[in-house]
Design a protein that fits this description.
Blueprint: E1 17-19, E2 26-28, H1 32-52, H2 58-62, H3 66-75, H4 79-90
Antiparallel strand pairs: 1-2
Helix pairs in contact: 1-3
């Protein structure tokens, strides 16, 4: 006997949730892009701090305002951004 075919379920953006692969938090789907960008920035800054022997943790950064995160990113830009900036300066 064949399995009964099920109709695909339509996402409900107000009620369905998605889990962040970086921190494991669950959130509504429309909030994911904003959260994931910030979560990526925090993960990067934590790895930079660890390499440089500085003392701040994911929890410290999660409680900071976005302006603080932006200042830290300006202080420690990702290598990809540094190389793109150097290309623009050469032109």
């Amino acid at each position: 006997m064949a399995k009964a075919e099920r109709e695909p379920r339509v996402l409900d953006l107000e009620h369905d949730r998605i889990q962040c692969p970086l921190c494991g938090r669950w959130m509504k789907i429309p909030m994911f892009d904003l959260h994931y960008g910030r979560c990526l920035d925090i993960a990067y800054l934590v790895s930079v701090a660890k390499k440089r022997g500085e003392e701040f943790t994911r929890e410290d950064l999660e409680n900071c305002k976005q302006e603080v995160i932006d200042k830290l990113l300006a202080k420690y830009p990702p290598k990809g951004i540094e190389s793109v900036d150097s290309l623009w300066k050469k032109q």
